[in-house]
Structures are given as C-alpha cells and as structure tokens.
Write a structure and sequence with these properties.
The protein starts with a helix and ends in a 5-residue tail after the last helix. By secondary structure, it is mainly alpha-helical. The protein is globular, with a radius of gyration of 10 Å. 70% of the residues lie in helices and 0% in strands.
Length: 60
C-alpha cells in the first residue's frame, strides 16, 4: 500500500461515514470522492486491505 492509497483510506476512516469492514461501502465512498486508486487497490488487493484494517500493517 503506497502513501497515496494510505492517505485515501485514512480520509475515509476519519470521515466516519462508513464502517471500514464494509468493503463495498468503502469502495462506493472512495468512488464518490474520486479516490479511484483506492477503489482499484481494494479490488486487486482485498486481502492486503483487510490485513491493514485489522492489524494496521501495510503490505508493499
């Protein structure tokens, strides 16, 4: 997870608009905010996304 995607995840998390475990909701909100990199990242790296949400560990 690069810094840009990390920042997008944190922006959505800090908004409090969606539960971060609701992957579809996170992707929907990311799309609405034009965070297309995050939408694609979750689609292609869902396991790494889950690991980050559950442990805070970022995979490269």
């Amino acid at each position: 997870m690069d810094d840009r995607i990390f920042e997008q995840v944190m922006a959505i998390r800090e908004s409090g608009e969606v539960n971060m475990l609701d992957v579809n909701g996170v992707q929907r909100l990311a799309f609405e905010r034009e965070f297309y990199e995050l939408v694609n990242y979750i689609e292609e790296n869902e396991r790494a996304y889950w690991r980050f949400i559950m442990t805070g560990e970022r995979e490269e």
